[in-house]
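Please fill in the sequence for the structure shown.

STRUCTURE ENCODING:
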């Protein structure tokens, strides 16, 4: 199936590269946990994630009806910006001293995560016809699920050495995922 459908191939690659938006939040929590104000940071992280979920459903849903490809591109770019800010907060010491720094970054990252989810779901449904939708979904979920396991395991191994390196890897994946999503065809009419 993948050989006959180059757009499906591109979609799977973009979607696989954008799994960093789902894998990165625990590493942001680890950055925040290194600080002195852990309880305040944890509350801020929970609030940031909830607020991002609340706001993103309406915005990404409306936008993905117009262009799910662009939603994936913008969400990937937003993830890259958020992860860059996380690294900046770590290097400048804000992650350890300011209880608001990582929750702000997590808010942006969770916005991007929800954008990736909405964009990929809408894109897959609109890309596949009624006869191929189940097959496209099964193939896509299987391949991306395997990649998710591999990326998660690799992230855990690298995190034992350095959490910022893992965040940097997810940043690179987000940029590459946004680039790959930009190569997809528009499927909304």
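FILLED IN BY: designer on duty
SEQUENCE:
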């Amino acid at each position: 199936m993948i050989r006959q459908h180059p757009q499906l191939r591109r979609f799977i690659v973009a979607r696989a590269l954008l799994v960093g938006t789902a894998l990165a939040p625990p590493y942001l929590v680890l950055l925040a946990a290194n600080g002195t104000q852990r309880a305040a940071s944890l509350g801020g992280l929970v609030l940031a994630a909830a607020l991002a979920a609340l706001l993103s459903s309406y915005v990404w849903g409306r936008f993905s009806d117009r262009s799910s490809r662009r939603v994936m591109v913008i969400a990937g770019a937003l993830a890259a910006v958020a992860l860059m800010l996380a690294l900046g907060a770590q290097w400048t010491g804000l992650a350890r001293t300011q209880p608001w720094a990582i929750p702000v970054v997590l808010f942006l990252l969770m916005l991007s995560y929800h954008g990736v989810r909405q964009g990929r779901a809408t894109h897959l449904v609109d890309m596949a016809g009624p006869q191929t939708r189940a097959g496209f979904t099964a193939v896509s979920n299987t391949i991306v699920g395997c990649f998710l396991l591999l990326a998660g395991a690799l992230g855990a191994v690298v995190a034992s050495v350095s959490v910022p390196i893992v965040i940097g890897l997810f940043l690179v994946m987000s940029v590459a995922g946004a680039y790959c999503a930009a190569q997809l065809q528009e499927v909304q009419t």
